[in-house]
Specification:
This protein is mainly alpha-helical. It has 27 helices and 7 strands.
Length: 681
């Protein structure tokens, strides 16, 4: 098919401008990308070659409006390749990733384009820009400089080569992890294999087996919502070790899907890229454009939390060891034992177990709870769009309406794990909000990996699953409530260590008693969660926080260390990981939340490279931000919610994140609320 005839390159006459998924064919992406890239290059050349003196309108606004088709094709492609991929899409991704990198490098390294942007930045004071326009100009100038626009010719050539190669490596890294996750299955049979497993997990495992054509069998996958409860409940230590080992070794299984070589080359190329730009390390380069500003500031925060977290984890490990001995299990607690004995300790200390809690956390009710919270805070309502055509039967869509009943945007949700979806949970956009060409409303998507219940049965979540749902919906609201003029600063286009604030803050409302009392209802009886159980659930909120904090922090510390290293030419990623963990005294009973060979945040692209710390940096703010509501005595205080929407959720990247936070809160936060919230002090 001629690329120009592809639905990917048409104006979509669909409800709400949703991509016409049934008309989009995987084999059309490569020619569509090639056509769209050529069109985007022509747009850029027209701007660069404009004989008129540069103005904000003919340069910055023109850049904002250029490459329309490329943005459209890319948004569909990368959402599908993450949430519902196939062999054709994966091959297309391997072809397209370096081509896109080459295109964007060419754009950022174009001397004529940069000359125009640089001239505007030099004359900024006389341009009469609005504050938002000044921010957009600053963002463009910074992007050009960080891409290498100020380098000499030879350095620009090398920068383009590095960028192109990194795109290829990131794509391969991601596909390798997905291959390891999709190919693994722990097949269980009736009887002893299922010992200790609660009915909700048995049902999910039966469904997973059926999806794989295995009659009368049960399958545990490497989806977090499958393997974590298995590790929590299975009495078969040998099977726990087998499954845990597969989970821990994703990306380092030798052969075609081994990622250690990719990590080595990626770290070296990033260091070289940073050096070309005048930075001592890639971590220094990456943090320079964040709230943290320096690796030292990041490490100071991480180590301030590491010490009390490690102390708490040691106490937790002692409790687990004591529990094992009390049960007559003559073992030393290993990483595959932690969740199993932790569940028993929680039952002992708080009279609480997951099997008792989970019936009250039905997926559909938790979706309603997240919507209700948004309604109470921001006046939003959500209208199901049951006839809207989407890319998979499990995906669903809602029209989001404002307090005045007017259209705000479209929210798409895709909750269930499948082999065509990468692991984890994330928010993305098919279309971002802006007002440059009329009022363009956003199309936002949340993707998760919950284990789907068998047909006719409700999907039940753990409390952590429900928290993940709220977290990603917080990101979703950041995109939906965006109210800016320019796409470059729309929604979640903010500093990496600020972007987690709206999502992590939103988690707090899940634990509010008025939300739980209304939406935590037993899936069979409809009974509201009993007050006694609710009390025990909330009292146990900091249970196992030493473990959770240590597994997170160790990942962030290794990420920063890798990207701060002086010598990387002979890097052995696994040896480096071990050495770093030994230096900080990593407890033997715990492993990193994401070990280096499957740390997709850092190596499946550039998103959280030298940036996994961002969750902790943002948590300092989110813990303090929720205090603003608590100080009023009302978790839905109208005035505080209005400030939150104005300065955080709707503001996009219109201003420096530190100013955005102080405009909301009146001050920058301290670390104490975080330590208190995690039960570390």
């Amino acid at each position: 098919m001629d690329a120009i005839q592809s639905a990917l390159l048409q104006e979509w006459e669909t409800p709400f401008g949703i991509p016409p998924f049934s008309a989009i064919k995987a084999e059309e992406f490569v020619p569509a990308f090639e056509h769209a890239i050529a069109e985007a290059k022509a747009d850029a050349q027209k701007i660069a070659g404009n004989p008129l003196s540069p103005t904000f309108e003919n340069t910055i606004e023109a850049l904002e409006q250029s490459g329309k088709m490329l943005k459209q094709v890319s948004s569909v492609f990368y959402n599908l390749s993450s949430a519902h991929t196939n062999d054709t899409l994966q091959e297309a991704e391997r072809i397209i990733a370096p081509k896109l990198a080459e295109h964007y490098s060419g754009l950022m390294l174009d001397p004529k384009l940069f000359e125009r942007v640089d001239a505007l930045k030099a004359r900024e004071a006389e341009l009469g820009l609005t504050p938002e326009q000044a921010r957009v100009l600053e963002r463009y100038h910074t992007r050009f400089m960080r891409a290498g626009a100020g380098l000499d010719k030879n350095a620009k050539v090398r920068m383009a080569e590095i960028t192109k190669r990194l795109a290829t490596l990131g794509t391969q890294f991601s596909q390798n992890v997905l291959a390891d996750e999709a190919s693994y299955k722990l097949v269980l049979s009736e009887g002893d294999d299922l010992a200790g497993l609660p009915e909700f997990l048995v049902s999910a495992a039966r469904e997973a087996a059926a999806e794989r054509g295995l009659e009368d069998k049960y399958v545990i996958t490497l989806s977090r919502s499958s393997i974590e409860p298995f590790l929590q409940f299975s009495t078969r230590r040998d099977l726990r070790e087998e499954a845990f080992t597969a989970w821990a070794k994703r990306g380092e299984n030798k052969g075609e899907t081994d990622n250690t070589g990719i990590v080595k080359e990626t770290v070296a190329l990033r260091k070289e890229r940073a050096a070309l730009l005048g930075f001592d390390s890639f971590a220094a380069f990456k943090t320079d454009d964040t709230m943290a500003k320096t690796p030292r500031a990041v490490n100071d925060l991480l180590m301030k939390v590491w010490a009390p977290a490690k102390t708490k984890a040691a106490a937790e490990a002692a409790d687990l060891q004591e529990m094992a001995q009390s049960l007559g299990d003559n073992i030393q607690i290993a990483p595959w034992d932690w969740r199993y004995y932790s569940e028993k300790v929680r039952k002992s200390q708080h009279d609480l177990d997951e099997a008792e809690v989970k019936p009250y956390f039905q997926l559909e009710r938790m979706i309603e709870a997240s919507f209700h919270t948004a309604s109470k805070l921001f006046g939003l309502s959500f209208k199901p769009l049951n006839t809207l055509e989407l890319y998979h039967p499990d995906a669903r869509a809602f029209e989001v309406l404002g307090p005045d009943g007017k259209h705000v945007g479209i929210f798409i949700a895709d909750y269930f794990a499948r082999t065509s979806k990468r692991s984890g949970a994330w928010m993305s956009a098919f279309r971002e909000q802006h007002k440059l060409n009329g009022n363009v409303s956003p199309v936002i998507i949340n993707v998760m990996n919950f284990s789907k219940a068998p047909e006719g049965q409700p999907t039940l979540l753990t409390f952590d699953d429900a928290r993940t749902l709220f977290h990603e919906f917080g990101h979703g609201l950041h995109g939906l409530l965006s109210n800016v003029t320019y796409p470059v600063i729309s929604g979640t286009s903010v500093a990496r260590d600020f972007v987690e604030l709206p999502s992590q803050l939103y988690e707090h409302w899940l634990s509010e008693p008025q939300i739980l009392k209304e939406y935590a209802r037993h899936y069979e009886t409809g009974e509201v969660i009993p007050q006694d159980l609710l009390n025990r659930l909330l009292a146990a909120s900091n249970f196992n926080q030493g473990f959770a904090t240590v597994e997170y922090l160790s990942t962030a510390i290794v990420d920063m260390a890798l990207h701060s290293a002086d010598q990387v030419d002979d890097l052995d990623p696994l040896a480096f990981e071990k050495k770093t963990l030994d230096e900080i005294g990593m407890p033997a009973q715990i492993i990193m939340r994401h070990r280096t060979p499957h740390l997709a945040h850092a190596f499946a692209g550039d998103g959280y490279s030298a940036g996994y710390y961002s969750y902790m940096w943002s948590e300092v703010m989110d813990a303090d931000a929720f205090e603003a509501f608590k100080e009023t005595g009302d978790p839905f205080d109208r005035e505080t919610a209005h400030r939150l929407k104005e300065f955080i959720y709707s503001a996009g990247g219109t201003q420096d994140p530190a100013k955005a936070y102080t405009d909301f809160r009146g001050k920058m936060p301290s670390i104490e609320p975080l330590l208190k919230g995690r039960g570390l002090i």
